[in-house]
Amino acid sequence: MKPITFTSSLPSDLIGLLDHYAQKFNVPKNHILEQALNAYFGRLKKAEYTYSFKKAAGDPEMITMAEEGLDDYLKILEEEE
C-alpha cells in the first residue's frame, strides 16, 4: 500500500521513547509507529469479536441457530461412521 504522510502531535514522553527505541534498534520511527498501530488495531478487533460473541451468547435466536447447526454436524458425523 502506498504510504500517506500525515501530521500529528504526541506527548513529549512518547516522542522521547520513540526516539530512544528507534536509535536503539536502528529502525525508522515510522516502522515503530506502524507496528504499534497494527498491534493496537489487532487488539481492538479481538475485543470486537469478544463483545459480539458475548452478545450472541445471550441471544435466544443465535443459541437456537447454533444448536441446529450442531445437530446437523452430528448427523453428518453419524452418516460417515
What features would you describe in this structure?
The protein is built from three helices and no strands. It has helices at about 10-25, 30-55, 60-80. The protein has about 80 residues and is mainly α. It has a domain at about 50-80.
Percentage beta strand: under 5%
Summarize model confidence as the mean pLDDT.
Answer: 86
Give the N-to-C terminal Cα separation. 49 Å
Q: What is the number of helices?
A: 3
Based on secondary structure, the structural category is mainly alpha
Oligomeric state of the chains? single chain
Bin the helical content.
over 70%
Q: Major sheet: size, sense and barrel closure?
A: none
Q: SSE order, as H and E?
A: HHH
Question: Which features would summarize this protein structure in a list?
Answer:
81 residues, mainly alpha, 3 helices, elongated
Compact summary:
The chain has helices spanning 12-24, 29-57, 60-80.
Write the layout of secondary structure elements.
Blueprint: H1 12-24, H2 29-57, H3 60-80
